[in-house]
TrEMBL record:
Function: The purine nucleoside phosphorylases catalyze the phosphorolytic breakdown of the N-glycosidic bond in the beta-(deoxy)ribonucleoside molecules, with the formation of the corresponding free purine bases and pentose-1-phosphate.
GO annotation, cellular component aspect: cytoplasm
Protein name, entry field: Purine nucleoside phosphorylase
Gene Ontology biological process terms in this record: nucleoside metabolic process
Signal peptide region: none
KW Ribonucleoprotein (keyword) present: no
KW Lyase (keyword) present: no
Transmembrane regions: none
Involved pathway(s): Purine metabolism; purine nucleoside salvage
The species this protein was found in: Winogradskyella aurantia
Entry GO MF terms: purine-nucleoside phosphorylase activity
The organism's place on the tree of life at top rank: Bacteria
Length: 270
């Protein structure tokens, strides 16, 4: 892996990816943030040595370098998921590349289903903690200790200072921002009624299919990390209705302006 990381990093440095400070994973609800970035360089995933390729039709596939609110940023326009057939090491490979390029902070967005019945679709949730239900760890491979501490502490995986800034920005801009626990599952199928009850019982406020692997690796690398979910559907097992993926994407688009405000105003302060 070290050889692959070095090859990918050198390729991007030669392309002009010059010491970014902040890495951003443009998950659901944050796609239009790209319009606010002064883009200097783009690299398609399929041109970067050793990089996975995004296969989900509504996820792009480019790594972008530029400035946003005066900060150098490197942005993943399109992320990878275990449900696409990738390993957890594949899913998190770009985080390792961004760290080698120079980032010290990783910001992530995603779409999630609301398990907490006090949360409504179209609202946002700041992730305060998570439950990894993906069946393994992105750190579970031979040689991981050469890249960081094998037994990575996860007592506070989401940076408290950044989260406090998100809360303050939401309040100042009249944005409803819940705080809660995100459970990450493999997918791509959605959950059964019994699974939603189980998730609620173990303390999850929302459920999705991403983010946790990237956050684990960010902590492994000593990065500050934070993540926000767009709540795209309500997961009440006693009143469960079939979910349409187009409805989820529509709900995410509705919440996008608030998500973009949070991220832009936060980056100003970092």
């Amino acid at each position: 892996m070290i050889k692959n990381i070095t090859e990918s990093t050198e390729y991007l440095k030669e392309k002009g990816f010059d010491k970014p400070e902040i890495g951003i994973i443009l998950g659901t609800g944050l796609g239009q943030l790209i319009d606010a970035i002064d883009i200097q360089v783009k690299a398609s995933y399929n041109h970067i040595p050793n990089f996975p390729t995004a296969t989900v039709e509504f996820h792009k596939g480019k790594l972008i370098y530029g400035t946003l609110k005066g900060k150098k940023v490197v942005v993943m326009q399109g992320r990878f998921h275990v449900y696409e057939g990738y390993s957890l090491q594949d899913v998190t490979f770009p985080v390792r590349i961004m760290e080698k390029l120079g980032i010290t902070t990783l910001l992530v967005s995603n779409a999630a289903g609301a398990i907490n019945l006090n949360f409504k679709k179209g609202e946002l949730m700041l992730i305060d903690d998570h439950i990894n239900l993906q069946g393994s760890s992105p750190l579970a491979f031979k040689g991981v200790a050469e890249l960081g501490t094998r037994f990575t502490d996860m007592s506070a995986p989401y940076n408290a200072e950044i989260n406090a800034k998100f809360v303050a920005i939401a309040k100042a801009n009249n944005i409803k921002l819940h705080k809660g626990v995100y459970a990450s599952v493999v997918g791509p199928q959605l959950e059964t009624r019994a699974e939603y009850r189980m998730l609620r019982t173990i303390g999850a406020d929302a459920v999705g299919m991403s983010t946790v692997p990237e956050i684990i690796v960010a902590n492994h690398l000593g990065l500050k990390a934070a993540a926000v979910s767009v709540l795209t559907d309500e997961c009440d097992p006693d009143n469960l209705k079939p979910v349409n993926i187009d409805d989820i994407i529509t709900m995410a688009a509705k919440a996008e302006p608030h998500m973009i405000t949070l991220f832009k105003e936060l980056i100003k302060t970092l």
